[in-house]
Each structure stands twice: as structure tokens, then as C-alpha cells.
Amino acid sequence: MVEFEPVMLAPIAGALALAFAGYLTFRIMRQSPGTPQMRELSDTIYRGAMTFLNKEYRVMVVYAVIVTIILALVVNYQTAVAFTVGAFFSALAGNIGVRVATKSNARTAAAAKRSIGEGLRVGFSSGAVMGMCVVGLGILGVSIFYYLFGDPRIIVGFGFGASSIALFARVGGGIYTKSADMGADLVGKVEARIPEDDPRNPAVIADNVGDNVGDVAGMGADLFESYVGSIIAAMVIGFIGVTVGGIALSQTDAVILPMLLATVGIFCSIVAIFFVRVGRGAGIKTLHAALNKGVFGSAILMAVVSFLLIWYLIGVMEIFYAMLAGLIAGIVIGLAAEYYTENRFSPVQSIAISSQTGPATNIISGFSVGMISTLIPIIAVCAAILVAFQFAGLYGIAIAAVGMLSTLGMTLATDTYGPVADNAAGIAEMSKMGKTVRTRAERLDAVGNTTAAIGKGFAIGSAALTALALFAAYTNRMVDAGITMDLSITNPSVIVGLFIGGMLPFLFCALTMRAVGKGASLIVGEVRRQFRTIPGLMKGRAKPDYDRCIGISTSAALRNMALPAALAILTPIAVGLVSPEALGGLLAGAIVTGLLLAITLANAGGAWDNAKKYIEEGRFGGKGSETHAASVIGDTVGDPFKDTSGPSLNILIKLMSMAALLFVPLLLKVWGG
Amino acid sequence: MVEFEPVMLAPIAGALALAFAGYLTFRIMRQSPGTPQMRELSDTIYRGAMTFLNKEYRVMVVYAVIVTIILALVVNYQTAVAFTVGAFFSALAGNIGVRVATKSNARTAAAAKRSIGEGLRVGFSSGAVMGMCVVGLGILGVSIFYYLFGDPRIIVGFGFGASSIALFARVGGGIYTKSADMGADLVGKVEARIPEDDPRNPAVIADNVGDNVGDVAGMGADLFESYVGSIIAAMVIGFIGVTVGGIALSQTDAVILPMLLATVGIFCSIVAIFFVRVGRGAGIKTLHAALNKGVFGSAILMAVVSFLLIWYLIGVMEIFYAMLAGLIAGIVIGLAAEYYTENRFSPVQSIAISSQTGPATNIISGFSVGMISTLIPIIAVCAAILVAFQFAGLYGIAIAAVGMLSTLGMTLATDTYGPVADNAAGIAEMSKMGKTVRTRAERLDAVGNTTAAIGKGFAIGSAALTALALFAAYTNRMVDAGITMDLSITNPSVIVGLFIGGMLPFLFCALTMRAVGKGASLIVGEVRRQFRTIPGLMKGRAKPDYDRCIGISTSAALRNMALPAALAILTPIAVGLVSPEALGGLLAGAIVTGLLLAITLANAGGAWDNAKKYIEEGRFGGKGSETHAASVIGDTVGDPFKDTSGPSLNILIKLMSMAALLFVPLLLKVWGG
């Protein structure tokens, strides 16, 4: 008989999470998908999303095969296998998430017909499916490979698989979604002067698909990467050897603890998901409170249970403090993002005020809000680093990242709820449902906007901490293998690494913004063509060819992500082959400017968006005024900032650190050891 | 009898430069100031500039007295004296430069009446006065204090004086100039729909004053700081001890060499100034070629003479290669700035093309041009660092900075020529001179625009290299005093330093942009008030109250620079008192993101400006089209980017590094040694 060991809880938790996701999906699918018109809209979005994903998969498979072969040759075959499974799991989680999200939008709207509480239940369940799939598949993959190989250094392959899919989902998806969005708006709103979500616009479905592809699949893959990345980094550092508070941890303890913390987080998240419910006539505040109960509830539960776990299992409480530092920093970063992007607070209002003197002052004001919003997250990250290191060294930093991400099942549920509610409100509007239902759907959407902003902040912060943990694992492995590295910032190799690494996020942003521009201009051409050549289209008597627009922006996205993707993967390897010290500097530089730029772009974009909404509520002349026109320009500038370039940086910094860690065996061959 | 020593050449070169500046000024003042109308315009700008400077001086004196007392108490009285003189010399150079520039604008226009060659001669002479004053006073100050105290560590006080004035001139001046500019435009062009330089606009003189205050005094003080900063950093490192190519340099050699290289540079610059002349009917290309002959000529001369000097005096040619690396990097960075901001090249043209789809695409496109433009300068800086360090260690990096700045007398002359030619063209226009003269003045202006872009790039690059040299001097001094510092990027103090240092440029930019916004809104209020209350103003029968606008934007600038200034000076000291390692990380982080952001902002701003001009030349519908309107918005956004926030970062990174080096004695008291 196999004796019970705590680590066995990890795959059990993973299976449980997946089972729970299955149950939630079953419950969602039992709901009515609404009127035939609603169903048709929902189906078109669903089919569009699948078109995008299938096309993307074809490219991904080619990429994955090539990387698998390279890994088998350069690293080892186990790592290659882990890579393949990591890529597959991440893609699977994204696929399920998008499927369920696109099946839930109309159902959420239909449920809102009965009551707002029902609407929240359906929409949030759909988010919870994504959350559970990500954490379930994540911990399942890591724990299975640990069982198979017993060596965390191999599981890095699994993480790199997750990173690679995140690259496609976040960068490719980000370029796709904003090409479609800007292309649709530039011809529809600006030239043809038809409303934003008008079904006559051939690019409107591509735009709606983009919300799911970018905010559901992209966000999911991003956080899947962070989740497994932080666990793996902690395991690798633990494997090499950890001394905390003067006590040397046993290798097994140090390696399995990250998995167990994640396991505890899954249980806490499942429990907290049941906290999220409201009564029949709930207002925005009540909805907000319900979601907050889930997020804070899971964090508090996590703190309590992990305290007991560490106390019982290891008895070295320093590790708990490191975990707690990460958990708290994650919440602070999320709240800071909320403060800088919500129109209840002064930053967004100051942008609205600046819009009165035109678009230029709107842009400058939004840009300065974005830059100033780096202060709190940076302090939170620094505090977490100092506390975590103080108590548990570099291992502590990785544990802090694990702590920040431990309740991901819950936080990702609230993130993914956002785009579902957004789509639901759009469907309620387009299918001309009654005013009561539309008001309810809009309330659900408004709350979703807030959670989306928090989610973006959280994604950035956790990406930075995960990348740092991976960076620490990289240096640890090199030093452990006997490579002497002078990582001092007075070493010119390190300085040059810092400069080049610092520059990469700027370059990456510029390339992704350009890619959006190119994609959008192709869509502009296609929409103009359809307006011109399809008779009766503008009068609503003929249907536009939605699929062509989806196809065009998909190909454009996949083509234009090649250069930034190559940059992200090849630069660290190339630099590492020249100097492993420069590679250290490169990673540190990229993490610092990547974090700063990502926060600036995400919050500036979010703030512009909400400044526009603030004016649309009737302030400074409301819709149609000059002030409103100025705010629309800021909002458009913010689109690629917050939905393409900014989030892509999360991937850049993690992928580069993951690549460095993954190719340590190659570097060791070159540098001896 | 005193025996001749090579170092005596330094003060001689300084005196010669000042004498040459005096001669040039005499020659300029002999020129006719043109018609009474021209003289009046010129006088108003002159008086306005003096109003600003005098008001600024009152604040500066208070600041200087406080800092002097602190330095005398915390460091030593010699440093305090050096500080006072450094501040005075920098202010003096700026004052002379602005006086001569504002006296030369009308004279340049009047000289252009005779021939374009005459116009160039007067305009360029005015720039040369600034160039000669800066290098003359710079080398004079450094060499005199070396003669007096013989210890470069005291001369750091002189550098900090220069830094402090640069802070006022660049940050205060930058806020002033863009508050006035944006304020004038927002009411004049947008609301009252009168032309840009219309004398009925009460803020128009404040705007013209701003060009001189920002581009002449600001640029001059910035480069004065870089010039003396790089020399002092090299001297401090040399004083501690330098081994190059296995040979230990004598302390005296290592300390005086930076001064001698600067001395050689002054002679080369003076010679090269005579290269800059054109015939009677010169076109833009010929004008360009003449200025290039000066810049490249001085660099080639410098390379040849310094080769001989190092060979003859020290015989360690490694130092020459380090110097050459810096000299070449400076030119490459300048040329890269030209490429990204000139409308002959594709980056600016791509922005113009994007403007066809509105302001949002114009902004996104310009922003991505700015970010991508970091690539070449970063590679140039990295190459210079690697080459310089390879040959001569950290001393080499400081020598590279000295090399880059050695021909400053010449490069600053071409920079300062820009705003003088700009003002001359404005005066030619406003005083309704004949078409021939105006065409000539416009040609002179167009060439000036190019040199200004190159100058900005050069200022940023040299600031980064100077800051790096100062940073190296800081760590060298600490280590020399027996403080063990773990400056490894795996040390959490260093990581936290990197994050906080990296964030400061973002914060600094946000604060300076906000300051411009606040200042501009005060000007808007005042201009509206004058339009409303001064009878007959709009019909040209009454004169506006120019001085009030100057006064308002001056006070606003001085008030709003307090917070960013305090941030720049106090952060490094506070962090250093907590951890000297974190201070190391802070400086490195700030230099990296400061350089990247400064390039992005400067080049995006320059590119937007020229994209607008490109459209105004008649492309995409030309002036008055929707495309033009979109490009105007980009240009306005770019104004504070390129003229306030971007250049302010040069000061931030140098000032922080200078403060760290200056307060080493204080840090040593705390940290033992």
C-alpha cells in the first residue's frame, strides 16, 4: 500500500479543481441561452473565437514541434516532453475558458432577466471555470512531472511550454484584438458614422471575438505562466538547497512546499467562490462587495491555512512571512490599479478635466497619471522583496511569488468575469432587451470593469515577482554548477546587460504597437471594401462577411508577432552565450523597465477609458461635446497601451527569465562547470 | 620662476575661450540691430528673458546659501566654496549666453538682408559665444580648484554647483517655456483663432522668451554640468589609483589627463569654429555642410591631437582608445537622433502617414517611433562602455565621457545657433521684412532645427555617460574608504535600489508634465482675462500686458519645480543613509530608465514636430486639412515631452549621481570606514 504523503494532495487538488470546473460548466450550459437573436449573436462570437484559436493552433504546433526538437537535442528529452505537455495544458485551459466564456455571455444576459443575482451567478461561474482550469491544470502538470522525474530542473520545460503559449495568446491575441477594434472604429465610427457595436460593421464580430481572445485566453495564459513559473522557480531554488533562519531545510521539504502552498490556495479559492453571491435587487456596491468578499476571503483563508500548514509540516515560520508578503503585495498592487483607473478617484477625474482643453492635454494628463501610478506598485514589490529575502533569502522571493499567486483560482475568476459581463451587456443591447434587463447587465458590466483593472495590475505585479524568482533560480543554478559570476553593477558586462535588457521592453512595445497599426490598416481596407461592394449592406438588407475580417486580423496578428517573439526568445540565449553575467544584467534590466512600462501603459490606458466614460455620464458637456471627442482620442490611444503592449511585457519578462533558466544546461556546456 | 607644466595649459585654454567669446560678442554687437520694429521685438524678448532670469536668481540664491551651509557643516568648507563658485560660473555662462542670444536674433535677421552667409556668421557667432563661455568657465573652475586644493574630491562641490543650476535652468526653464507655449496656443490658436506668433496674444513674448530660456540657458547649463561632471569623475577615479594595460599610472598623470583632454578639445573647437562659413547664395544643403564641417572637423582634430598628447605625455595608448570610443559614440547618438526626427527619413514620414487616420494613430505612431529610437543610442553607449572598460577600466568609462564632451565648445555652438536662428526667423516674419530675407531666415532656421535635434540627442547621451562615470566614482570612493559593498544584482538591496531608481524617471516625468499643465492653465486664465478686459486689444489698438504673463509662468515654474527637485536631491542621500548598496542600485536603475525615457520622449517629440511640418509642406492635404489637425495634436503632446520632461531627465540622473559622490564623506561617517 502506498503511504500517504502530503505532496499527494497536489494532484488531488488539481483534479478537484477540474472536476469543480466541469460541474460549473454543466450548470452554466443548463441555463437558457435566451432569444434566437441572442443565441445567434453569441454563436457568431463563439465561432469567430474558434476560427482565431484554430488558426493560431496551426502556427503554435509548428513552433512547438521545432522547440521540442531543439530541447531534446540541446537540453534533454525529458525537458522536451515537459515542454510539450506545458504548452498543451496552457492551450487547453485557454480553449476551455474561451469556449465557456463565449457560451456564457448570452446566458448571463438571459439570467439577468430573472434577477441580477442570477446574472452574477452565471457570469461569475463562467469566470470560475477559467480560474479552476488554470490552477487545476497548472498544479496537475507540475506535480505529475515531479512524480515522474523528481527533478524540478526538468519541470522548467513545462514552464517554458506555458510561456510559449502565453506569448501566442497575449502578444498574438493582443495584436489581434486591437487591430480588429481600431480597424472597426476607424471606418465604422469615424468614417461611416455608425455606432460602435453596429452589426452592419463587418469588423464588429472580430472586435467582440477579440475581447474573449485577449481578455480571457490572453489573461488566462499569462497567469497560467506566472502560476507555474513561480512554483517551479521556488522548487528549483529549493532543490539546490535552502537555509532559512539558520536551519537547513530538507531538500524534499523545500521542493514540495511550493506545491503544497498552491494546493492550499486551490482549496481556499474553491471555498471563497461560494462567498460570491448577491440578492435579487443588488446594486453596484453590493455586487462589488460580493466579489471583494471572494477575493479577500480567499486571501485570509490562505493566510490562516498556510500558517497552519507550514507550522505543522516544517516549523520554520520565516517561510510563512515570505508567503504573506507576496500575498499582501498582490492585493496592494490590485487596489492601486483600481485607484488610478476608476472614475470615483481623482486621477481619472483629472484626465476628464484636462480633456476640456482638447486632446493634447488629455493625452499628456493620462500619460502622467500612468507614470505616477508606478509608485505604489513599485513600493509594494520592493517591500515584498525585502521582507521575503530578509526571512528566507532568494527562496523567500520565489515563495512570495507563489503566495501572491496562490489564490489565483479566485482572482482569475473575477478577472474573467469582466469580459463575460461585458459581452453580456453588449448582447443585451444589440438584441434590444427591455430596459430593466439592460440596466442589470450594465451594472454587472460596470463591476466587471473594475475587476478587470485590478486583474491587470495583479497580472503585472505577479509577472514581475515571478520573473524575479526565475531570475534568482537562473543565477542559483549557474553558481551551483560552479560558474563564478561577478554580477556586480560595476561590472561592465552587467551594466551593458542592464542597458540592453532595459531597452527590450521599449523595443517590444514599439513593435507590438506597430503590429496593431499594420493590422488595423488591413481591417480598414477590408471594411471599406465591403461597404463599397456589398449591395444593401448599409441599409441593413445584406449581411457583411464577418469571417473575412476575423481571418485578416488573425493572419496579421500571427505574422506580426514573429519579430517581437523572436526577440524575446533569442535575445537571452544569444546574450547568455556571450556572457552569463550580461544575461543576468539583461534579465534584471528587463524586469525593472518591463514592470514600469507595463504599469504605465496599463493604467494610462485604463484611466483614459474611464475618463471617457466619466464624461459620457454627462459631465463637461457629455457625449457629443468637444470634451468628449478629446477623451475618445485618449481612449483610442490607450487601447493598444493597455490591451496589447502593456500586457505583452508581462510575457516578455517571464519568457526571457524562463528561457535563461531553461537553457542553463546549454550555457554550462559552453562555460564549463 | 615657475616651471612650465602641461596642466597650466588648462586655465590658459579657459581664459582663451573666454577672450574668444568676448571678441565674438564685440563683433556681434557691432552689427546693425535692424529696423526700429525689429529692435523693439528683440528688446521685449531680451527684457522678458532678464525678468525670468532675475526672478529665478532670487530663488537660486536662497537655495545656494542653504546648500552652502549644509555642505560646510556636513562635508567641509572647501567643498562649500567650490559649490558656490560652480553655481556662480554656470549661472554666469547661462546669463551671458541668453544675453548674447537675445541680442543676436534681430541682428541675424538684419545680416541675412545682406546675404545668407552673413546671417549664418552672426547667428553662429552667437552660438559660439555660449559654447566658449561654457567650456571656458568649466575648465577654468576645475583647474583653479585643482591648483588651490590639489584634491579632485573637493572639486565635486564645483560639479554639484553646476548640477544645481542645471536643475533650475533645465527643469524650471523647461516648465516655464512649455507653460507659456501651451498656454499661448490654447487660448490664441484654439479659442481666439489668431495666428501662432500674433503680437496681440499677451503670452506671445513669454513664449519667445521661453525658447531662449529653455534652449539656450537650459541646454547650456545641462552641458556645463556634463562637461565638468565627466572631467571631475575621471579625476576622482584617477586620484584613487588607476592601472591601465598592466601599468599603474602616476596619480598626477591620471588626475590631470582629463583636464588636458578638455584643454585640447577647446583648442580644436576654436579652430573648427572658423570652418563654419558659407558663400552668398548658399542653400540648406550648403549650410548644413558648413555646420557639419565644424562638428566633424573638431572631432577629427581632437582625435589627432589627443593621440599625440597621450602618446607624448603618458605613452599608454589604451586611454586614447577609451577617449575615442566616447567621441564616436557621441556622434553616432547625434546622427541617430537626426534620423528619427528629420522628415527626410521614414520614421517621421510614417507618423505623417498615420495622421491621415486621425490624432490617435498619430500619437501611437509617434510614441512607437520614440521607443524604437532607443536602439541605436543604447548600442552606441554600450559599445563605448565595453571598449572603454576593456582598455582602461572604470577610468576608461569616465575618459570616454570626457572624450564625448571634449569638443563641446563646437557642438554647443551649433546647438545654440538653433534657437537664435529660430528667433531671427520669427522676427523677420513679425516685422514684415521682404520675401528674400524671410526665405533666407527660414533656411537658417531649418538648419537650426536639425542641429537642435542632434544637440538634444548628444545632451542625453553625454548625460548618461557622465552619470555612469560619476556612479563609478561613487563606488570607487566607497570601496577605497574600506566600505565593503555587495553590488551584485542578486543582493535584494541592489534589486530594490534598481526598482526605485528605475521608477524615479517615471515619477519625475509625471511631475514635470503636471507642472506644465498647471502653469499652462494659469496662462490660459490670464490671457482670457486680458482679452476680456483690455479694450481694443483684439483690434490691435491696445497693447497686451506681456510682463504679467512672463511673471505668472515664471512663478509657476519655480513653484512647481520644488517637488521634482527635492526628489532628485534628497532621494539619493536618504537611500544612501539606509544602504550604500541600495544607493548603487538606485543610481544604476535611474541611469538606465532615465536614458531610455529621455530618448523616447525627445525623439517622439521631435518626430511629431517634424511630421507636422512635413504635412504643412503640402502633403496629405497640407495646412488646414484633418490630417494636419491630427498632426498638430501630436506636436502639442510632444512639446512637454521633448522640451520639459525629456531633458529634465538628463539633470535627474547626473544630479543624483553627483549628490551620491558629493555626500560620500557623510555616508562614510555613518557606515564607518
- What number of structural domains do the residues of chain A give? 1
Walk across the major sheet of chain A and give the strand order: 1-2
Q: Span from first to last CA of chain A? A: 42 Å
Largest interface (CB within 8 Å) is between: A-B, 71 and 71 residues
Biggest β-sheet of chain A, characterized? 2 strands, antiparallel
The count of helical stretches of chain A stands at 20
Fraction in helix of chain A: over 70%
| Strand portion of chain A | under 5%
Order of helices and strands of chain A: HHHHHHEEHHHHHHHHHHHHHH
Q: Radius of gyration of chain A over alpha carbons?
A: 24 Å
- DSSP strand count of chain A: 2
List segments of chain A where confidence is low: pLDDT < 50 over at least 5 consecutive residues.
Answer: none
Mean pLDDT of chain A: 92
Assembly context of the chains: homodimer
Please describe what this structure looks like:
Two copies of one chain form a homodimer. Chain A has 673 residues and is mostly helical. Chain A is built from 20 helices and two strands. In chain A, α5 runs antiparallel to α19, α7 runs parallel beside α13 and α11 packs parallel to α19. The longest helix of chain A is centred in the C-terminal third of the chain and has 46 residues. The interface between A and B is large, with 71 and 71 residues.
